[in-house]
Design goal:
6 domains; seven-stranded mixed sheet; alpha/beta; 46% helix; eight-stranded mixed sheet; membrane; globular
């Protein structure tokens, strides 16, 4: 026999490697591990049994990972005739679905597919069934050190395919019950100012939130309020429990017991989980409530920490890939932090007035959450909100005890239109007050760099050391702990070498030259409606890596290279700005210019001074040289300009590394240029599934024939080249920076299509 605590620890220890494995073993290897686990299970010793359980749980996690990868291995890069159920729609356009059948073959579990707001022949809503011809593609995300991990997120959510709808014919167009309920709720709240927030709080539908509101919630540290979390599920369970208690007033005494309210609460929590779209965070919360209910019904009494351990083990066993979810890790850390906080620093019980006691209790709770969750906040969001404490001190109780209960009551009484409308109006007024208060607070968002990650753990040992207060011995431990946490601050980066980073931004170009914590940028990525690469990728990356940009060289004006200029100049207005042409507000970029920066020599090799025009062939071509190694940055220069540049510059173009011109288009990378530059390494910034099908197979062959080592961001993610005394060191995100199984190149296509 094994103990319940030991069983839970085996589940967590066995499945935890999914977070760090570089690749998932084959089915044959997993079968071998299962055989070993079966053999280890035979001895009667408890230690052997625990070892066998860990192996069994490891196999369980690996099988779950293989199951998640099956759609991208079997269905990706194919065009298939399918039967689907729509699971997500915004503004009557489909954005998510599940494939239930391919031809005559039924799929279980049905793989999730993401679609980018595709319009159908009639308005789309959740629950509809369609025949669709789909072009399926595997999940693929931009991979930069410290950036948002789209591939990990997709696997955690169980949506590993993207689709382009080639044709569609309806089978059953009736919306499901949840969708009809949301439509009714939307009609009842259509005249209210905070309708989008009400939908987010009630159903987890956050697509309608404006960017301004999102930024405000982020800056004040209250974004968690807009997610369907344990708070919402718990409130719905409490409401169900209360209704059952009221119903028991009609029962004779012999029929009144404590089990019925418990079942009523679980039933209400389950119904609300379904109504909230059965999103993974809500499902995990409901699963935890089922565990607590089962323990209560069985009469098992347990401590807070043991209950936490059991719930975590059950959630991981039910959904092993939850370990890849930031929301899961944040929720688990939050509960552990609260247990730790109240155990090590309980609020002193003094005869305060009731109101003061409640305020102090809430302030004490918010302080614990703020300090102990710093590591997770920094790791996920790369910053902290300085207005977090005062914002949550008011917003959390207001939303928890006023807004959400009013929304839940409105849902319950939705058949009584006037009553439901009155309740929603009151909820809307409460949100007026909450958002007015949040806007009144100063913008408290503070972006921090990676050095602060270790320091953010300080509240945990500090609280332990403060509680013991045992004199000199603990003072030495405290000093050693502080020294260890501050190590990233007094450890200087190598000041002798330098690095060049080609960021993964999809289609476009963004290069960062780094030396002595300073940076020089070459191009700024793309722009789109509502955002750009400078704001979304480059600026956060620079801040996280503690780099101060001193200059920006813009190769040419095309949007995929200049899209982030405005955002970067707004963030660092004193940054030098260089581009071709003689317009005011920037330094010109002409052939023959030369300058020194941080000990590196920059020379411009194209375009000739006074050359008129714009476009690819006017790209500012820059060579960076440290006296031993050199890099040639070429923008989007094409063959005609390459020929002229080679004629005028000749041997001065030789470089160890070449940024592949024009993303590997067949109009560039002429044999003459490659022969003249003679690089050992080529780096291309390209997007997977580019509309222009870049890089060209002809160009790839041209580089390989010359034995030039090829790297591109579509396949390798962020590419970093480090230069020092020896040969250049090339680090790619997928192979070196973060080699994880969920970062692999999924699908089988070696060249973009």
């Amino acid at each position: 026999m094994v103990s319940l605590t030991g069983l839970c620890l085996c589940v967590i220890v066995g499945i935890a490697p999914l977070m760090w494995l570089a690749e998932i073993p084959s089915l044959e290897a997993i079968s071998g591990l299962m055989g070993i686990a079966a053999l280890v299970s035979v001895p009667a010793k408890r230690t052997w049994r625990y070892g066998a359980l860990v192996l069994w749980m490891l196999c369980w996690g690996l099988l779950a990972a293989r199951q998640a990868l099956w759609p991208v291995e079997a269905l990706a890069d194919h065009t298939l005739d399918t039967e689907v159920i729509i699971t997500g729609a915004t503004n009557e356009k489909v954005n998510a679905l599940r494939i239930t059948r391919i031809g005559k073959r039924w799929l279980f579990p049905a793989p999730g597919v993401r679609v980018y707001d595709a319009a159908l022949s009639q308005p789309a809503c959740s629950g509809q069934r369609w025949h669709m011809r789909l072009r399926l593609r595997p999940v693929h995300g931009k991979l930069n050190a410290g950036g948002f991990d789209a591939q990990r997120y997709a696997l955690a959510m169980g949506v590993t395919l993207r689709a382009r709808i080639l044709s569609a014919a309806p089978i059953a167009t009736q919306c499901d019950l949840r969708s009809r309920f949301i439509q009714r709720f939307t009609r009842q709240s259509r005249m209210l100012a905070w309708q989008e927030v009400l939908l987010a709080l009630g159903f987890g539908e956050r697509a309608g939130l404006s960017q301004h509101d999102r930024d405000l919630l982020r800056a004040t540290g209250t974004a968690h309020l807009m997610a369907i979390s344990g708070l919402h599920i718990g409130l719905s369970g409490t409401l169900g429990w209360g209704l059952m208690r009221l119903l028991q007033l009609l029962f004779p005494a012999r029929l009144i017991g404590w089990r019925l309210p418990l079942w009523g609460g679980l039933l209400a929590a389950g119904a609300y989980t379904w109504l909230a779209g059965a999103q993974p965070p809500a499902v995990r919360t409901f699963l935890s409530m089922l565990v607590c209910g089962a323990l209560r019904l069985s009469g098992i009494r347990t401590s807070g920490w043991r209950l936490w351990l059991i719930c975590v083990a059950v959630m991981i066993f039910a959904e092993p890939l939850a370990l890849l979810s930031d929301s899961f890790l944040l929720s688990v850390s939050a509960v552990a932090g609260l247990l730790f906080w109240y155990q090590w620093l309980p609020l002193a019980s003094k005869p305060w007035p009731a109101f003061a006691r409640h305020v102090l209790s809430l302030a004490h709770l918010q302080a614990g959450m703020m300090f102990l969750l710093l590591p997770m906040q920094l790791a996920i969001f790369h910053g902290v909100s300085l207005s977090n404490w005062p914002a949550n001190l008011v917003a959390v109780p207001a939303v928890t005890f006023i807004t959400v209960p009013l929304i839940l009551l409105a849902m319950l009484l939705t058949g009584f239109s006037q009553t439901a409308g009155l309740l929603l109006t009151l909820a809307d007024r409460s949100l007026d007050a909450v958002f007015a208060y949040l806007r009144w607070l100063p913008d408290g968002w503070l972006a921090l760099d990676e050095r602060y990650l270790w320091l953010s753990f300080a509240p945990w040992p500090a609280l332990i050391l403060w509680r013991f207060r045992s004199g000199l011995a603990w003072s030495g431990v405290a000093l050693a702990t502080v020294a260890a946490l501050l190590h990233p601050f007094w450890r200087e980066k190598n000041s002798q070498g330098w690095a060049l980073h080609v960021l993964d931004i999809g289609h476009g170009l963004a290069v960062v030259v780094e030396r002595r914590q300073q940076a020089m940028l070459y191009d700024s990525g793309n722009a789109w409606q509502g955002g750009d690469s400078g704001q979304q990728t480059i600026a956060p990356w620079l801040r996280w890596h503690r780099l101060t940009p001193q200059g920006l060289i813009l190769s040419h004006e095309h949007l995929d290279h200049s899209g982030g200029v405005a955002s970067l100049l707004a963030a660092w207005p004193h940054m030098l700005f260089m581009r071709t042409g003689e317009e005011a507000g920037h330094y010109p970029c002409w052939q023959g210019m030369r300058w020194r920066w941080q000990g590196l020599t920059f020379t411009v090799h194209w375009p000739p001074r006074g050359r008129q025009g714009s476009g690819n062939n006017h790209s500012c071509v820059v060579k960076i040289d440290d006296g031993r190694h050199s890099v040639l940055l070429t923008g989007d220069i094409e063959a005609a300009a390459e020929l002229e540049m080679v004629r005028s510059e000749r041997e001065r173009l030789r470089a160890d590394v070449l940024q592949v011109p024009h993303h590997g288009s067949r109009t560039s990378s002429s044999p003459l240029l490659l022969s003249q530059v003679s690089p050992a390494i080529a780096v291309a910034s390209v997007a997977r599934y580019s509309a222009w099908r870049l890089p060209s197979a002809v160009v790839l062959r041209r580089y390989r024939e010359r034995r030039i080592v090829w790297y591109d961001t579509a396949r390798h993610g962020q590419i970093t080249l480090r230069f020092g005394a020896g040969q250049p060191q090339v680090l790619s995100f997928r192979e070196h920076i973060s080699p994880r199984w969920y970062h692999q190149w999924f699908g089988v296509t070696p060249v973009n299509r």
